[in-house]
Design goal:
The chain has 294 residues and is of the alpha/beta class. It has three domains: 5-96 and 190-218, Periplasmic binding protein-like II (D-Maltodextrin-Binding Protein, domain 2), CATH 3.40.190; 99-186, D-Maltodextrin-Binding Protein, domain 2; 221-288, Alpha-Beta Plaits, CATH 3.30.70.120. The chain has helices at 16-25, 56-61, 72-81, 127-136, 170-174, 199-220, 233-239, 270-278; strands at residues 5-10, 38-40, 46-51, 67-71, 89-93, 99-106, 121-124, 142-145, 161-166, 177-186, 188-192, 222-229, 247-251, 254-264, 282-288. Strand 13 (247-251) and strand 14 (254-264) form a beta hairpin. Helix 3 (72-81) packs across helix 4. The radius of gyration is 25 Å and the shape is flat. 31% of the residues are buried. The structure holds phosphoribosyl ATP and zinc ion. Phosphoribosyl ATP binds at residues 10, 13-15, 52-54, 71, 73-74, 97, 99, 164-171, 186.
Length: 294
């Protein structure tokens, strides 16, 4: 393989746009056009391998790609169902495409909780993760493996419950189903194998992961600027969410006031601003942060 770092990404689907977006925010310049399998990053030695999400863990494990971005649900399922140990694991959590793998059943059926699962049928596209849950909880049930449309299984009479991904819950509701147990929480993850990379690739991966870290940190971070009475500085700085060491500066011609500036690494809510104001803070500005590197 060449010394260009190869990243396996979902070509089309729920992960694709957010994965492309994250890499673009990291400064990678590329365009995804047509049906090509490979897209070249113009300004860094990186190639993007555009595939179905299910193939990403094995492509990384088998050296078709160096790293990949995939749902944790797909990675864990592959780890549990592949014959020998899968050489691909989480290098970084990415915080998007969050969803849960849940057991769900009809409100009127005989399964209302995990305690009712013994001797019943569960339809799922995640036999590995579902079987692990059943075994850990000493439940004996039959798995009905499906390729999709799992939510229809109870109404067509092939299973009493399902185990499927849920995000808003609208699909379950539309099919008269209610989730009664979460067996896996998932988000998009960056995965890599344990193989060592060439020095060039290791370098570029290091740089990329630092940039991803910066993008993720800056997402919820805000820069706060305000003026405050000197007497309230301690209370005001205490209220700034997730900030250490704010900058405190004198204000020309205002002996009793100081200017405070701080990076807040947690969400700044309206309630926080109201609290700051109640302590005497004035001219409060909350600014977005585009990039961060520590
Ligand atoms: O074609 P390819 O094989 O690449 O894609 P795919 O069709 O297998 O996957 P895709 O694009 O649907 O999902 C990719 C990944 O997105 C999943 O592996 C999850 O990690 C993540 N994700 C996040 C979801 C959902 N949310 C989600 N809601 N994947 C699927 N769903 C489905 C779910 O299966 C159910 O049918 O959406 C429906 C439920 O959604 P709500 O909002 O009604 O609860
Ligand atoms: Zn898929």
């Amino acid at each position: 393989m060449s010394d260009r770092l190869r990243i396996a990404l979902q070509k089309k689907g729920r992960l694709a746009e957010d994965s492309f977006d994250l890499l673009k925010k990291c400064g990678l310049r590329f365009s995804i056009r047509g049906g090509g399998l490979l897209a070249r990053v113009k300004n860094m030695p990186i190639d993007l391998l555009l595939v179905r999400d299910d193939d990403i863990p094995s492509f990384v494990a088998n050296n078709a790609a160096d790293i990949g971005i995939v749902g944790e649900n797909v990675l864990v399922e592959e780890q549990l169902t592949v014959q020998s140990k899968l050489d691909a694991d989480i290098a970084m959590r990415l915080g998007f495409s969050r969803c849960k793998l849940c057991l769900a059943a009809s409100d009127t059926g005989k399964v209302q909780s995990s305690a009712d699962l013994n001797g019943t049928r569960i339809a799922t596209t995640y036999p590995g993760v579902t079987a692990r849950y059943l075994s850990e909880n000493h439940i004996k049930a039959t798995l009905v493996e499906m390729k999709g449309a799992v939510e229809l299984a109870p109404s067509i009479g092939i299973a009493e419950s399902i185990c499927d991904l849920v995000s808003s819950g609208a699909t379950l509701e539309a099919n008269g189903l209610t989730a009664f147990e979460t067996i896996l929480e998932s988000e998009a993850v960056l995965i890599r194998s344990e193989r060592s990379l060439s020095a060039e690739k290791a370098d570029i991966l290091d740089k990329l992961m630092n940039r991803i870290d910066g993008v993720l940190k800056s997402k919820d971070s805000k820069y706060i600027m305000l003026n405050a009475p000197k007497s309230a500085v301690a209370k005001i700085t205490n209220l700034l969410p997730g900030s250490d060491a704010p900058t405190i500066m004198p204000l020309a011609g205002q002996d009793d006031l100081v200017a405070i500036q701080a990076v807040c690494t947690e969400t700044v809510f309206w309630e926080t601003l109201e609290g700051l104001k109640a302590l005497g803070a004035r001219a409060i500005l909350v600014l977005p942060i585009e990039k961060m590197m520590s």
